[in-house]
Write a structure and sequence with these properties.
CATH class: Mainly Beta
Cofactor: Ca(2+)
CATH architecture: Distorted Sandwich
Largest sheet: 5 strands, antiparallel
Number of helices: 2
Order of helices and strands: EEEEHHEEEEEEEE
Keywords: Calcium, Carbohydrate metabolism, Isomerase
Helix content: under 10%
Number of domains: 1
Distance between the termini: 40 Å
Strand content: 25-35%
Subunit structure: Monomer.
Shape: globular
Structural class: mainly beta
Strand order of the largest sheet: 4-1-6-7-12
Radius of gyration: 16 Å
Organism: Cesiribacter andamanensis AMV16
Protein name: Aldose 1-epimerase
Length: about 180
């Protein structure tokens, strides 16, 4: 089994750090994976349309987190995997995040079939950052390209089995710019 990812935190605000609630996020996905109380995917692929998970059009993270939704309440924010579609081995756009005041923008491209958006729901003032600042809830976000979490237990998810002699290859690009 092999399902590598990257849990780097991003915050596009100018320093000193502020929360990421005004960051506008867009995810190129029509479905996401709902989770159970332990934040493990249930196996369902749920359509994003009409829900706070519909980020096909850019929306401020904070606006969406205010919506009453059982999935957001379970995770304390976003901690879900979005379905990007079948992996073809070619780089494709997965996400765009804009911090509107500074114009800083992050684009994510990947060959992976999924992307997990985590909105720093469990940051609690213990993680120290630049200048000794202690990061609080929602002061960072992660965009983790990957195969679907819990894939070994969900036969209809893309396989994470790597057989002897097979080669694993994946590519993710984090591209920064100013608008």
């Amino acid at each position: 089994m092999l399902n590598l990812t990257n849990h780097t935190y991003f915050n596009l605000n100018p320093h000193p750090v502020h929360d990421v609630l005004r960051h506008e996020v867009a995810l190129h996905a029509r479905q996401y994976l709902p989770v159970d109380r332990t934040l493990i995917p249930t196996g369902e692929l749920r359509e994003v349309a009409g829900s706070p998970f519909d980020l096909r059009t850019p929306a401020p993270i904070g606006t969406r987190l205010q919506e009453q939704d059982e999935q957001l309440q379970l995770a304390g924010g976003y901690d879900h995997c979005w379905v990007l579609g079948e992996s073809t081995g070619l780089l494709r756009p997965a996400a765009t995040v804009l911090e509107p005041a500074s114009g800083r923008q992050l684009e994510v491209l990947t060959t992976e079939p999924g992307i997990q958006l985590y909105t720093g729901n469990f940051l609690n003032g213990r993680l120290q950052g630049k200048g000794g600042i202690l990061y609080q809830k929602h002061w960072g976000f992660c965009l983790e390209t990957q195969h679907f979490p819990d894939a070994p237990n969900q036969p209809h998810f893309p396989s994470v089995v790597l057989e002897p002699g097979q080669t694993y290859q994946s590519q993710t690009v984090y591209r920064f710019s100013v608008k």
